[in-house]
Fold:
Amino acid sequence: MPEPVLLLDTHVWIWIVEGKEDKLSSLCIERIRVANQQDRLLLSAISVWEVAILEMKKKISLCMSCQEWVHRGLSDYGVELADLSPEVAIESTRLPGGFHADTADRIIVATARNRNATVVTVDRAILAYSRSKHVRAIDARG
Structure:
């Protein structure tokens, strides 16, 4: 039976690309590995924007240009980039059950809902929202 499609939250993707898997549980790493082998690993296009913003604001430091880091982070780790489609953009403004106003988180959640994916995150707001059953999410730390 195939693993569910996993959608990496931005910080999880950064940790993987930066070699900081120690921030993730061993179970999470295994699930990501299996999903990757089955071509079931996604990243929302908004995560590319978030990385660029974080780097521009000097909240993260990349060992190469942002452009090169993103291309490497997609190709070297077998992550499929989920486009920001009109459906996802609209869905992000109409999430059921109430969700906080962070635009990037709303797009990540809408992408997961649209692609029937499970968000891999440590974000408390997304994890809390998943308890309402409006999106599936797993805690990357265990």
